[in-house]
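User: Structure please.
Assistant: Input sequence and predicted structure:
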Amino acid sequence: MARKFILGIVVFAVIIGTAVFMGCSPEEAAEVEDTTALERTTQDPRLVRPGQLTIGTGEPVYPPWMLHNDPARGEGFESALMYALAEELGFSREQVVWERGLTFDQTIAPGPKPFDFSIRQVSVTADRQQILDFSMVYFQPDKAVISLPGSDVVNAASFADLRRARWGATIGTTDLDYLENVLGISNVAVFDDQAGTFQAMQGGLIDATVAALPSAIYATGVQVPEAEIVALLPADPNDNGHGLLFEQGNELVGWIDEGLQALIDRGVVDELIEQYLLPEGNIAEISE
């Protein structure tokens, strides 16, 4: 009996010692151990709000990425993809919460984030990977040249032809990087947002801009219907494609990647691309 009593004291001392070493009480140590069983479930303690999937996006949002300026409707490529991903991970539609409080620049800046991850056509680049984490790439859009009829880029057949035009782009975007680093244009006019870029085009301050093809389709169909897509350009070697954006060090990335991979393997992503992101007709291509 004495031996059992002494053994019990030793075991208790080990538990207490371990808890002290880890900087928490025995009760807290037990709680930490228990929560590991909840990982990769809807109650994962690593979620911003366990029991909910909090997804960051823009304000406003635009077709074809999201329709009606309402991501919760599940219409548009990104919105539909996120609800498919949520279902794959075990979340109901009601458990998906949209966080729209950050600008694009705030979203791609380093530091804590109020969401589990963000989706807003964020391109994965080496520079951004230094300060943020990303999921696997789920979409690689073509680059499109947008201009008004009669501009200097309408009949362009080479990069040299394009360089003779006046270009504009939105600050902080891979569109601006593309113009400067791929096309080699040194005097790009920079604007605070895409609306400002298009207003400059309409006002005759610039001849053209570039955008991801799906964004260009919407822009020429709705935002600036007098403009047109005049050419497609080669992929940006520094732009790996669109990925979900995470705060650096977020341990959810592996779980989210598994969900995305399952959707890719089942053809869900390809179906959504076909439904929302492909243009009608043929568009000229400029390769160099």
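Strands lie at 53-56, 96-99, 117-118, 132-134, 143-147, 168-170, 189-191, 208-212, 228-233, 245-247.
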